[in-house]
Amino acid sequence: MNTILLVDDDQYVIDGLLKHVPWEDMGVRIVGTAGDGAQALELFRERMPDIVITDIYMPKMDGFQLTEAIHEIDPEFPVVILSGFDDYANARKAVTKGIQHFLLKPPSISEIEFVVREVVQQLNESKERDELLASYVRQQDIVQRSMRELFFRDLLTTRYRREELPWQRIAFMELPLEIDVQALTLSLIRTEGRTRTSERDWQLLRFGTGNIIREVLDKRLEACPDLAAEVVAYSDKDFVVLFLSAAQLGDAASANIMEASTAIVDSVLQYMKISMLGGLGKSWTGYEHILDSFLESQSAIETAEMNDWNRIYRFAEKTDPEEGRLMPLDLIRKLNDAIFQKRLQDAADLWQELKADRAFVSSSLPGLKGVCAGLISAWWTSAWSTAAHAADDGAETGLEELLVSLNRSATAKGLIDWMDEQMSRAIAQIKENLQGKKSHALIDRVIGDFIEKCYHQNITLEEIAAKIHVNRNYLSQLFKKITGEPFVTYFNKYRIEKAKELLSTGQYMVYEISEMVGFQNSTYFSQVFKSITGISPSEYKR
């Protein structure tokens, strides 16, 4: 809340201002009053108010002299002149003294409110500007760091010619005009266990990993004054570290970069328990070649996917294509046919043959994902068509979830292990669906011939099992699996639905309806009715 000092040699004026003006409603409070300018100056220095409202003509020191003394302390301090004479000379003099507000005695409360609110608004605006400037000064380093990350992220996604680079922006960010750069891509491996981690928890792990990367770099590069590093959170699982040097990156700098990169991987594994793939591009000269080094680091990541995790792999240019790297399309086609024709043993054997094929397992991860996505879709379609009449509305959603899970595989080995598990599940599901047709028919008979037709009788599951010549325990387990509820629960719910129909007619007493739907005890009927519907039969009837 802003504060005001009132100054006037007429105590009657002071009392009137204190009594009749709603200061607190305007967001201000009075911190003192003075009868002359000299006393007011002492109070000003002591209590440091935000606003001074003063009379002009006072003994010892008038209002203009008081204003001059205050402005020597704070040239921008707001002073409101309160004068009992309608004198334009005073108004002009007030302007020359830096006074912007001038009230004639006796001022109305509305005039005082208008002036005070205007001064308070100007004070608040001034404070906001000062706070904003102070905040900017305090956070200048953060602003520059944010600008640098956006700048380097842009260079990782867009190719620029040298003349197209934003040189003024580079200078403002205090970056060297000439650099050598080397890109390191670090890819977090979201294993099956990590896949089940909630998105919030994963983002916390990712945030912690980013902090570790920066801490390791700060420590490792402390003894390398010519070498700096910029960390870009490139995607949900990838970080890109750009090693920058105003000097040429020689053997010593390259060794430091490799040591720092290895230390990052070791620290993340130790503290965050997350495995990583690391790919290091070659050294290039110029900001315009950052993208080249980054693409090389991505290529090195592909090598890492086929080998051990938690290591840094350098980019190595490929010459002639390797022999035996063509995808075994004929084998893949045979496997798809076996899946669609539901030749389960053939499909299992062909998958084992495919995952042992060197050309298949050494293919790029995107290529493997494409083949596996097709196989998963084929398995799902086959399994679903077998159970076309089953009550499973979540089939399409399930396929989407499988494909999302497949796409999260970060390595070829992880993907093939995941596919092994899905193949086994798919084969088991198809077998179960083939057997399930008979099971559904059996439960349909129990519901249609016994529950719906004999609900008014005191019939038990044992009696039903005996009549259809099946084991009682098997029938109980099968009924719950297909309907989702135990027999007794399903049977009672059906009876209560019939009871509700009878209650709605208004023609029967509760005890009569109890007997009509198969309950011999009306009290027990009421208990079951309330447990299922939430109200008693009598309340439902009303």
Describe the structure.
The chain is of the alpha/beta class. It has four domains: 2-138, Rossmann fold; 148-160 and 174-314, Alpha-Beta Plaits; 329-433; 437-541, Homeodomain-like (Arc Repressor Mutant, subunit A, Orthogonal Bundle), CATH 1.10.10.60. The chain has helices at 11-20, 37-47, 63-73, 88-96, 109-138, 140-157, 167-172, 192-195, 199-220, 251-272, 290-305, 329-340, 344-355, 358-361, 365-386, 395-407, 412-454, 461-468, 472-483, 487-505, 510-516, 522-533, 537-541, and strands spanning 2-7, 28-34, 51-55, 79-83, 101-104, 180-188, 227-233, 238-245, 276-280, 284-285, 312-314. Strands 6, 7, 8, 9, 10 and 11 form a six-stranded mixed β-sheet that branches. Strands 2-1-3-4-5 form a five-stranded parallel β-sheet, with helices on both faces. β3, α3 and β4 (79-83) form a beta-alpha-beta unit. α2 (37-47) packs parallel to α3 (63-73), α12 runs parallel beside α15 and α13 runs antiparallel to α17. The protein starts with a strand and ends with a helix. The relative contact order is 0.05.
